[in-house]
Amino acid sequence: MSDQSHRSVQGGRIDRSRPLGFTFDGKRYEGYAGDTLASALLANGVHLVGRSFKYHRPRGIMTAGSDEPNALIQLRSGDRTEPNIRATQIELYDGLVAESQNRWPSLRFDIGGINNLLSRYFPAGFYYKTFMWPPSAWMKYEHVIRRAAGLGKAPKAPDPDIYSKTYAHCDVLVVGAGPAGIVAALAAGAAGARVILADEQAELGGSLLATGEPVDGKPAGDWLSEALAALARMPEVRLLPRTTAFGYYDHNYLTLMERVADHLAAPPPHAPRQRLWRVRAKQVVLATGAIERPLVFADNDRPGIMMASAAATYARRYGALPGRRAVLLTNNDSGYRAALDLAAAGTTVAAIIDLRPEADPELSAEARQRGIELLPGHAIVGTTGDLRVDGVTAMPLTESGVGGTARVLACDLVLNAGGWTPSVHLFSQSRGKLAWNDSIGAFVPNISAQAERSAGACRGSFSLAACIAEGHAAGAAAAADCGFVSGLGAAEPPPSPAAEDPSAEPLRQMWIVPSTLPVGHHGKHFVDFQNDVTAADVRLAHREGYRSVEHLKRYTTMGMGTDQGKTSNINALGIMAEAQGRAVPEVGHTTFRPPYTPSSIGSFAGEDHGDLLDPIRRTPIHGWHEGVSAPFENVGQWRRAWYYPRPGESMHDAVNREARAVRTTVGIVDASTLGKIDIQGPDTIKLLNMVYTNAFTKLEIGRCRYGLMCGEDGMVFDDGVTTRLDEHHFLMSTTTGNAARVLGWLENWLQCEWPDMKVYCTSVTEQWATVAINGPLARRLLGELTTDIPLDNAAFPFMSLREGTVAGIPARVFRISFTGDLSYEVNVPASYGLALWQALVTAGEKYQLVTYGTETMHVLRAERGFVIVGQETDGTTTPQDLGMDWIVSKQKPDFFGKRAFSRPDTARGDRKHLVGLLTENPSEVIPEGGQIVAVLKDKPPMDMIGHVTSSYFSPNVGRSIAMAVVKNGRNRMGDTVFIPLVDRTIKAKVTEPKFFDPEGKRIDG
Amino acid sequence: MMLIDCPFCGPRAELEFTCGGESHIARPVDQAAMSDAEWADYLFMRKNPKGLQYERWNHARGCRRWFNVARDTVTHRISKVYKMGEQP
User: Fold this and answer.
1) Where are the domains of chain B?
2) Among partner residues A249, A712, A752, which is closest to B56 by beta-carbon distance?
3) Which residue segments constitute the domains of chain A, with CATH numbers given?
4) How large is the average pLDDT for residues A849-858?
5) Going by fewer Cβ within 10 Å, which terminus of chain B is more open, N or C?
6) Residues 6 or more apart from A960 whose CB is under 8 A from it?
7) Residue A205 main-chain phi, psi, to 5 deg
């Protein structure tokens, strides 16, 4: 076990009474409760944690938060392993297992480091330039590139954890619990508003967790404890630590990711690992803080070079000293404070190298007092050290670059302080307009697009006093906009706590810190550390004509890593603008898109996977089908029995047996899934005449009529039978998959176009169970089970309805047929469905009754050439294409589709027509979807004239049968066509799509 | 995700609704008299403005009623919801 060599003697918010063991790359270390993996590694003197994406350069921990570009870790092992997790956000737990990524065979010695030596051959756009010739070789290149690139490894087994999703509503959502956010929540909460305060860190407090500045005359930590206690006492305030607001959508809808159990080795039983919050807020206060920006100097990426504020945070908050001897490179005052913090914690600060000729006099004096050498007007022109920085070279800045005496400074830590970039990600996602603020060298929120306010550092106000003042004002105003105004019974918001506002000298923005040689000729000036994009790459992209920032981004992959360029975007824009001789705001910025930080897909799925992904609809007879081990077919959300195999039977055997039996004896099929819409009202006939192509005016009570439904464009979209139950009462049936769509179609027209029509539609699909009895013996079987329904053809003709009892159950019996054989469809209340089925099975035994499934149903209807909407049709099919002109009324003045049928394209005679196909070899079944050609060539391409829509072996015809849509098909009767397949070509003859009982003589039994 | 104020149910999340596109398109009565171009215009052509649009929405996973929404297609600001048959 290591000895935490870089842990300070005292101080920090870690719990030194709770040591925790963990391993990194197999080596055991110790940290404390309250550590992150990053702080614990630093406390053990470990900086080197990974290799960079492209050049495999050694990389260290650079930041202390979610902006981390380098320290990406493979966390945990086995099924729970997760790649690319930021060490700076991993809370330490006992037994934590972490590994570095993108290195082989080891982190310290990585073969891929050769890429760094060859880096001149890997410029921006390298892939696009190198791997494009010959074009056919890309597939091979890609295989190798994909293996060489990429960082961590995905787990191989399914995720063992559960995830949860929840909705929440609030008056004021405050994002970020730094000083501005906490004060905003206090102000809004005190006014009586329902507040949610979310922060991505485990501990609320933001910069207050590490600052040495006092608040309200108290140490910041004490003030923070009191403020959090006050918030916890407010019943309408909900605190969400470990929760990242990662998306800001329309109408103040925000998505938050709560890491419920990521700080534990495994989630407690039944607890989710993460929870996705979907919050609708009346008002939003963004207090998302700012990200410190690196200066782009030569070889600025060595382990041990880190953001100044991050180093101070590790020292103050975690008691972890990132180095013994530090050098600061800064362009603004905040770097001085970080250096002074580190010096106070025990690190020797050798020098402060300031790009500015002058700094704040007070800070300069304080630094000198600490024995820190000041080098104003200087730059770092290079760094040394392989796996850890061991020195920097400083030179005075001149008008044209650098010049004069170089100073070599030994150090094991370089603090990089290039100013602060407000975190405007969420503001920008909310469509707010940004404005360039030249004094801080960054974009700030300008015009809000939603009910939202930014406060504190995220709007460019970096001092503690400004953060507190703005947070207070934003919280109070947000509450007031929700109606919580002081004086209306709610408590007065407390006065804003006080903090000092130190004076500050302006920063000096140099997008590239000059070196002794031009950029690209000596050392690497990294801009995007995660994707290895350098200042030279940005300039190259500019020279090659990539002028738009969006093009720059895609060409160089700048900002496209998992950190989305949090530390690098502004620098890239600055370098780009400089190259173009324009100002940054003229160049513009890339679009900010969710998520703010990577979010697990598991949390988006939540509980919606496996059995809970989609509802399953089962008929009342489902259990019986299961009992005889029938396989099921999915039809929309319905499960339908597919066929009923007997022992030893294949599907083919079973379907042949079922299909033969229905034509010779009797069969029953569970048709409960057919859509059923109960339509009532005096204007129903009017509606039916509009939605169906044929006329319904003369439909008598007790009679049924088949109809086709078309859209206004004349294309078939559903079919079914409608029965007149009474003068103003009808039952419409629809195809199984289209029931909801048809109901929506009817309601759409009734509500929007004909609100005066008195028609009421109700879905009754689930209220009725339907069993269709088909076959020559159907009448005899049904006759055994009913006494009050006369079944002879005269009393109960085809296409009519009789009501009575079947097997003692109240029933509606329809004489409609989807097989072409004598058929009765018996509808009973759903709860009687199983009883009806069982009664039919029992009574049918002596008639050799078969139960048959959807496959046999399809074969039987195809034998007769009955179409299935969605199988023979595809949204470009008219009734005429199907050869169903007979169902299109010539008399009706108006119906959906009528006008469309006279358009030139729908009226032409050589459209794709529905035809039958008979293969030359009668036992060969054409694959459905097979493409049809009239002229066969040696190899593709060939002119395709249509495709096979339905294809089966028909035991009743004694051969294979198929239906197809073929260009000008009705004029090709008798022609031979070809279906070329990969391994063979099928020859077939075009016929009428009627294969069995073409005259329809069997319908009356 | 927008918050849409259903005139029958009150404010609900957008995922409860389906959008029916541009509103106030009356179905032509004398279609036989229309040229193919006029017919195609009714059937296919929509305004697709950048800015204020009047459109139909259906509370499909709620009361199933259709109504009109005046929405800015750029900002998604909803300036008015009103029932079928009413004017904006």
Assistant:
1) 3-25+35-83
2) A752
3) 1-153 (3.10.20.440), 163-290+422-481 (3.50.50.60), 292-420+504-587 (3.50.50.60), 675-766 (3.30.70.1400)
4) 98
5) C
6) A918, A919, A922, A923, A924, A925, A926, A951, A952, A953, A954
7) 145, -25
Mean pLDDT of A920-932: 97
Tell me the C-alpha distance between A666 and A688, whole Å. 34
Mutate to test the interface with A, among B17, B36, B65 (most CBs of A within 10 A): B36
**Closest CB from B3, B43, B84 relative to A752:** B84
- The count of CB pairs under 8 A between chains A and B is 52
Q: Give dist(CA A12, CA A210) in Å, integer.
A: 8
A280/B43 touch (CB, cutoff 8 Å), yes or no? no
Are the Cβ atoms of A748 and B58 closer than 8 angstroms? Answer: yes
Q: CATH 3.30.2270.10: does it fit domain B3-25+35-83?
A: yes
Q: Using the 8-state DSSP alphabet, how is residue A152 labeled?
A: S
Number of residues assigned to chain A: 1005
Q: Which residues pair with A219 in a beta bridge?
A: A214
Nearest to B75 among A253, A449, A713 (CB): A449
Chain A (494-523) residues lying within 8 Å, Cβ to Cβ, of chain B: none
Place of tokens 């020559």: A776
Among A276, A277, A899, which would you mutate to test the B interface (most chain B Cβ atoms within 10 Å of its Cβ)?
A899
Of the candidates A168, A167, A185, which has an alpha carbon nearest to the alpha carbon of residue A176?
A185
CA–CA dist A721, A858 (Å, integer)? 18
In terms of DSSP H, where are the helices of A492-582? 535-543, 549-556, 569-580
CB neighbourhood size of A642 (10 A): 22
User: Which residue stretches of A322-414 are H helix?
Assistant: 334-345, 361-369
Tell me what the pLDDT averaged over chain B comes to. Answer: 96
Within chain A, how many helices (H) and strands (E) appear? 24, 49
Token pair, residue A597, equals 């930080």
CA distance B63 to A243: 35
pLDDT at residue A821 is higher than 70: yes
SS3 A179: helix
What φ, ψ does residue A128 adopt, rounded to 5°?
A: -65, -35
**A740: exposed, middle or buried (C-beta count within 10 Å: 0-12, 13-18, 19+)?**
middle
DSSP state of A105: B
User: For residue A385, what pLDDT band results from cuts at 50, 70 and 90?
Assistant: very high
Mind listing the pLDDT tens digit for each residue in A691-738?
A: 999 999 999 999 999 999 999 999 999 999 999 999 999 999 999 999
How many CB atoms lie under 10 A from the CB of residue A607? Answer: 13
Does an H or E element contain A469, and which?
Answer: helix A464-481
